[in-house]
Design brief:
Layout: E1 12-16, H1 28-36, E2 40-43, H2 58-70, E3 74-79, H3 96-100, E4 104-107, H4 112-122, E5 126-128, H5 142-152, E6 158-161, E7 170-180, H6 181-186, E8 199-206, H7 210-222, E9 231-238, H8 251-257, E10 266-268, E11 281-283, E12 286-292, E13 295-300
Parallel strand pairs: 1-2, 1-3, 3-4, 4-5, 7-8, 8-9, 9-10
Antiparallel strand pairs: 5-11, 6-13, 7-12, 12-13
Length: about 300
């Protein structure tokens, strides 16, 4: 995997919205924080555009993202928020300039579509993390934002979290991949479909019916995406819904059921996804995971290959 250059003060950080629209006041805290980190924020030309639910038309959002991918001076693209709309841009994006000088892409939820493309097709690391919306206001996640800062500036990253009754004990080492289950499901059968073999898969989701969580997990299982994992990490499964006739399992039990008999370590309750904190994860990076009776640990290895700016 190619690891982009860690950030340094003076570098430029682009902020653009590939999916749902945002208001200017929702971005103030992010712009101020980026400056406090010593970075120069660069807003997309259509950052505050609106077209229905979207942050502008597909053409406008595509232009902003393509401009930032092509600009070698921008070393981070921090996405404004998720929602829906990123997959509508995928087929039209040109990553040739990006590949000559890879940069960090950071976000989660709908941004999983870009993470999957980067890891599966381009073999470039990216960051599953809080977005610009979460730097302040009612969506503020200070712990998640601080973990993003540490990852971006190359500080050592190791997480520990509490044990869970559904955990499967063990240790593993492999490349971390994954993201939002619904988005990964939407990419199945496409050229952006996530490759999971011999990797550690992270999954999270929000605002879904339990039967649909089962349908999506069943799809991964039928497609052999769960067979050869090194391990599995379940993050937040928040605001789940049930029908009048109960499904009979919660989201964690559904996920656990599809890993029965697999033999690899499985951990539940990792604080990432649509939850607070949403801890930053370097997707594409080799990690070590330990799942023990007393708790869990995730440690990120140094990058195998770091690409310098220019």
């Amino acid at each position: 995997m190619i690891s982009p250059e860690y950030l340094q003060p003076g570098m430029k950080a682009g902020v653009m919205a590939p999916a749902r629209k945002v208001a200017p006041e929702e971005m103030y805290a992010c712009m101020e924080t980026l400056q406090h980190w010593g970075l120069e924020p660069v807003a997309g030309s259509h950052l505050y555009a609106g077209h229905g639910q979207f942050a502008g038309t597909d053409r406008e959002r595509l232009a902003d993202l393509q401009d930032m991918l092509d600009n070698p001076d921008i070393r981070l693209i921090l996405f404004a928020r998720g929602g829906y709309g990123t997959t509508r841009l995928l087929r039209y994006l040109d990553f040739s300039s990006f590949m000559r000088s890879p940069k960090w892409l950071a976000g989660f939820s709908d941004i999983t579509a870009l993470h999957s493309h980067l890891q599966t097709n381009l073999h470039v690391e990216s960051i599953h993390a809080s977005m610009a919306l979460h730097f302040g206001g009612k969506h503020a996640d200070p712990e998640g934002v601080e973990s993003l800062r540490k990852v971006l500036f190359g500080e050592p990253v190791e997480y520990r979290w509490e044990p869970h009754p559904l955990n499967r004990i063990g240790t593993c080492r492999g490349i971390l991949c994954g993201g939002n289950l619904s988005v990964l499901y939407s990419l199945r059968g496409t050229s952006y479909d996530l490759l999971t073999g011999h990797r550690i898969l992270f999954l999270e989701d929000v605002d879904e019916y339990l039967y649909h969580i089962d349908r999506m997990m069943n799809n991964l299982w039928l497609g052999n995406r769960l067979d050869s994992l090194k391990g599995l990490i379940a993050g937040g499964f928040d605001r789940m819904h049930d029908n009048e006739t109960p499904f009979g399992k919660n989201a964690e039990n559904i996920v656990a059921g599809y890993t029965e008999g697999s033999g690899y370590p499985v951990s539940f309750g990792f604080p990432a996804g649509h939850c607070r904190p949403n801890l930053a994860l370097i997707l594409g990076r080799t990690v070590e995971m330990e799942v023990a009776q007393t708790g869990c640990r995730l440690r990120f290895m140094p990058p195998h290959r770091e690409v310098s700016h220019g």
